[in-house]
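Researcher: I need the complex structure. Ligand is S-adenosylmethionine. Inputs:
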Amino acid sequence: MNTSETPALTDSELKLLQALVYEECGMHFDERRTSFLQDRLHRRLKECQLDSFYSYYRLLISQKGKQELSCLLENLTVNETSFFRNKAQLELFQRDVLDSLLRRKQERRDYSVRIWSAGCSTGQEPYTMVMQVVEALSFHHLRNPLAPNAAVPKPLVPAPWRVEILASDINYSVLRAAQAASYSEHQMTGVDYGYRLRYFDKVGDRYAVKANVKQLVHFDFHNLKTEYLPQRNDIIFCRNVMMYFDEAEQKRLVEKFYRCLNPGGHLFVGHAESLLALTEKFQMVHRNNGTAYQRVEVKV
Ligand SMILES: C[S@@+](CC[C@H](N)C(=O)[O-])C[C@H]1O[C@@H](n2cnc3c(N)ncnc32)[C@H](O)[C@@H]1O
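Model: Output:
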């Protein structure tokens, strides 16, 4: 084969590969997104120096093709994200959901807060969560002090509270960038100067997330298509991920999220996503233009 030419992708090969991607990660490529899928498949075929898409498919389903399969999936994910994305929704998160969560927890003497950012991309979402939880906790602590805090320097999370933010993605490259936690001026758009001063160090022309903030986030690989997902969360953020799945997969995912949340827990989805046609197990919560979904408890 002339290496400058890539072979044609037949309809049946495209269907096979589409079905494989769907089976592996839930991503669905309808007509509007087929050309994106075709483009990425051509690139991968060229990289692997194979002579047909059928051979590429055979490689992907073979034992030795595992690495190529995860590389293909990485090439197919859309990783667009930003700090403080969807401010109206984050206001609802900090002022209503977190505030009442902290009050309810303190009444029960349960001082742990666990939040999961599912589909965290390069980390801006989970680090935004940390900043918001720390601010909400400081405010809560001022009004409801538990123990005099003599520690110097003052910890981000006042004792006896414990905060755990789990952040996961299917794409190892974005997880590595999230762990590196170094952002350009452009990526910092949306982070006001108070936050920059408190939670970042300026390193050259970049902003590095401070070590004590990083410590609160645990990054991990999780494919949302699988059944084994992190349990006992108070809050789940899964924003701008479900929009790449079809309705059947969205319904399965929402059902899994229900089980991954503590009773009364909240799920936040993207601005263009909704649970309304997918489930009756969550009820919508509003504040201004912000929306979240709270787990409905079955009365026995
Ligand atoms: C558009 S980004 C959204 C990032 C962030 N949640 C936000 O709203 O700014 C979507 C992320 O979901 C991840 N993703 C897509 N399919 C996934 C799956 N099956 N399991 C886990 N993560 C997935 C992608 O790798 C990507 O980083």
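Model: Summary of the prediction. DSSP finds ten helices and ten strands in the chain.
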